């Protein structure tokens, strides 16, 4: 098994890369480094390229002798997708088709795709199943759903083995604390609350305080990148030619933003200044995964995705390393 991870120098991608390498798998990374970090992966296994350059991608597949692809390269900010939808259709959707065409040209027939819970309709008051209604509320979710349709077509038409993993909220860090979430412009709840708890940000913003939830804040399903990496390898091994599969990946448990804030204060022993801001467009009140299919078919069980484990890992990462570990600079206090 020789795997190429597109976007493999990013947060989830590099976690998958390190997990694969620990299993003795020949893994390689393709990343344009617009968001990923070269320091997150082995230098001699990194190729810098844009997935929209079909010829370049095909050459990398050929030179590295790739027979499996894990596709994580994408733009991921929901708010940014609303203000710049063209960028999201270009990178996420057209870029994915470019990758698929490169794979087809080089005879690579197995792919696991990093999809998202943002493909689902809003309004569920229970965990979401894979066969629940699909209605993405943002260009980000729509661009990812379009790739799922592409994969289904390539599975049916060209016999590819294709799997879409619908992440809920990726979080946490490596257990050794040496790698974790490090976006140049952070928008995710756990790193933001941890940075505030450590004094690297002035405070933590809670987006929306009057949601129809017990404490008025959004409820999300946070899942460790360590558990996500395990699921990717299981999905690769299970994929079958001509079949398109879809799996939810989450802890199966909802945690509100205010609960994350309280847990961060408990773990660090420090108060975290916070303020409530208007809800963001495209945000649902609740987003919780039903992971029955992944547990049953992949034999996957999240083991590091409880709130305390996620926050403890994130605090160890941000407290000792953080973004400066990759960039050589400290996040400025806001």
From TrEMBL:
<comment type="pathway">
    <text>Carbohydrate metabolism; galactose metabolism.</text>
</comment>
<keyword id="KW-0413">Isomerase</keyword>
<keyword id="KW-0119">Carbohydrate metabolism</keyword>
<dbReference type="InterPro" id="IPR036291">
    <property type="entry name" value="NAD(P)-bd_dom_sf"/>
</dbReference>
<dbReference type="Pfam" id="PF01370">
    <property type="entry name" value="Epimerase"/>
</dbReference>
<comment type="similarity">
    <text>Belongs to the NAD(P)-dependent epimerase/dehydratase family.</text>
</comment>
<dbReference type="InterPro" id="IPR001509">
    <property type="entry name" value="Epimerase_deHydtase"/>
</dbReference>
<protein>
    <recommendedName>
        <fullName>UDP-glucose 4-epimerase</fullName>
        <ecNumber>5.1.3.2</ecNumber>
    </recommendedName>
</protein>
<dbReference type="GO" id="GO:0003978">
    <property type="term" value="F:UDP-glucose 4-epimerase activity"/>
</dbReference>
<dbReference type="GO" id="GO:0006012">
    <property type="term" value="P:galactose metabolic process"/>
</dbReference>
<dbReference type="InterPro" id="IPR005886">
    <property type="entry name" value="UDP_G4E"/>
</dbReference>
<keyword id="KW-0520">NAD</keyword>
<feature type="domain" description="NAD-dependent epimerase/dehydratase">
    <location>
        <begin position="3"/>
        <end position="250"/>
    </location>
</feature>
<dbReference type="InterPro" id="IPR020904">
    <property type="entry name" value="Sc_DH/Rdtase_CS"/>
</dbReference>
């Amino acid at each position: 098994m020789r795997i190429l991870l597109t976007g493999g120098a990013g947060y989830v991608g590099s976690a998958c890369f390190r997990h694969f390498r620990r299993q003795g798998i020949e893994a390689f990374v393709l990343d344009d480094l617009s968001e990923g970090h070269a320091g997150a992966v082995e230098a001699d296994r990194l190729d810098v390229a844009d997935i929209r350059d079909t010829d370049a991608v095909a050459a990398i597949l050929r030179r590295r002798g790739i027979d499996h692809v894990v596709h994580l390269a994408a733009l991921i900010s929901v708010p940014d997708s609303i203000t710049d939808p063209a960028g999201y259709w270009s990178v996420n959707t057209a870029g994915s088709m470019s990758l698929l065409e490169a794979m087809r040209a080089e005879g690579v027939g197995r792919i696991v795709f990093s999809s998202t819970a943002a493909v689902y309709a809003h309004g569920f008051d229970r965990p979401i199943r894979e066969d629940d209604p699909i209605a993405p509320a943002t260009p980000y979710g729509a661009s990812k759903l379009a790739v799922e349709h592409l994969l289904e077509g390539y599975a049916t038409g060209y016999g590819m083995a294709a799997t879409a993993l619908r992440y809920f909220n990726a979080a946490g860090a490596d257990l050794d604390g040496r790698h974790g979430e490090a976006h140049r412009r952070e928008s995710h709840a756990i790193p933001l609350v941890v940075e505030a708890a450590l004094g690297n940000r002035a405070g933590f913003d809670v987006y929306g305080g009057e949601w129809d939830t017990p404490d008025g804040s959004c409820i999300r399903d946070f899942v460790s990148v360590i558990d996500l990496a395990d699921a990717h390898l299981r999905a690769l091994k299970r994929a079958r030619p001509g079949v398109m599969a879809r799996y939810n990946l989450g802890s199966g448990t909802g945690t509100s933003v205010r609960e994350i804030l309280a847990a961060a204060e408990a773990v660090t022993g420090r108060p975290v200044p916070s303020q409530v801001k208007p809800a963001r467009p495209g945000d649902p009140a609740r987003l919780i995964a039903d992971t029955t299919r992944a547990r049953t078919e992949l034999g996957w069980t999240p083991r590091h995705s409880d709130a305390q484990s996620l926050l403890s890992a994130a605090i160890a990462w941000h407290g000792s390393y953080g973004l400066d570990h990759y960039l050589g600079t400290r996040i400025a206090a806001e």
